[in-house]
């Protein structure tokens, strides 16, 4: 790989970090490990071609263009957490992955049961990830930051919201969300 390709890959991974909280290679490898998948199966569940998944993982491509795929990634992240904490068995996880594979996206805050905790209430992290996903499906992080900078002089709270949810890390957005609840 030449220097220009290395720089492009590094830039793509930085963009992925700003959009998705981490480079997609790391995120996808964790899902593969946690859910016992291979790359071909992960690509199938997400609704991506195997070459597209490979390009996203390697940093040859930065952005997931389809918001429904982003939602499937988030659903798989939540499922992996449930498998890890024992609340979902391996067999149930296989069934859930089939449901996730068939999901077409749609309303980000009302996907079938995937936004709720065991108590039936949406988890803060899940709500935050849905807000981030929606913002990031509308615009790239750099454009969101530019819009926030333009709003900052007259609407600082809205500018902060855009920066935190549209271009920030999930942990920072969770802290912001929790800090603004009564």
Automatic annotation (TrEMBL):
Keyword DNA-binding appears in the UniProt entry: yes
GO molecular function: DNA binding
SUPFAM superfamilies associated with the record: lambda repressor-like DNA-binding domains (SSF47413)
Compositionally biased region (Low complexity): 103-120
UniProtKB keywords: DNA-binding
Ranges for region Disordered: 87-123
Composition bias type Basic and acidic residues, residue spans: 93-102
Protein name: DNA-binding protein
């Amino acid at each position: 790989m030449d220097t220009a390709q290395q720089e492009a890959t590094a830039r793509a991974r930085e963009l992925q970090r700003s959009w998705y909280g981490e480079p997609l290679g790391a995120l996808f490898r964790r899902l593969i490990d946690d859910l016992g998948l291979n790359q071909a199966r992960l690509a199938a569940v997400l609704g991506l071609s195997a070459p597209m998944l490979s390009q996203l993982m390697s940093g040859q491509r930065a952005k997931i263009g389809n918001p429904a795929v982003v939602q499937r990634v988030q659903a798989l992240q939540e499922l992996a957490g449930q498998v890890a904490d024992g609340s979902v068995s391996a067999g149930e996880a296989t069934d859930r992955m089939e449901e996730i594979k068939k999901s077409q996206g749609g309303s980000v805050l009302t996907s079938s049961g995937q936004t709720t905790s065991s108590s039936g209430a949406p988890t803060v992290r899940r709500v935050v990830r849905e807000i981030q996903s929606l913002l990031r499906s509308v615009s790239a992080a750099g454009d969101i930051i530019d819009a926030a900078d333009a709003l900052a002089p007259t609407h600082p709270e809205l500018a902060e919201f855009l920066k935190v949810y549209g271009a920030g890390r999930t942990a920072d957005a969770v802290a912001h969300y929790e800090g603004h609840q009564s």
